[in-house]
Amino acid sequence: MKLRLALAAATCLALPVIAHAQPVTGPYVGLEAGTSISNPVNYHYTTERYYGKDDTKPSYAGIASVGYGFGNGFRVQLDGVFDRNTFHKDDYEGDYDYRIRGGENTFGPMVNVLYDFNVGLPVVPYVGVGAGYQWVQLNSSLKDYSSPEYMIQGNRSSFAYDVVAGASYPIAAVPGLSLTGEYRFTGLTESRNYSTSYYDEPAYKNYWGKVKFGQQGSDTFLLGLRYQIFNAPVAAPAPAPMAAPAPAEARTYLVFFDWDKYNLTPRATQIIAQAAADSKTQTTTTLDVSGYTDTSGTPVYNQGLSLRRAKAVAAKLVVDGVPAAEIEIHAYGETHLLVPTGPGVREPQNRRVEIVLN
Question: Which of 44, 62, 218, 219 could form a disulfide with 38 if both were Cys (CB 3.0 to 4.6 A apart)?
Answer without folding.
Answer: 218
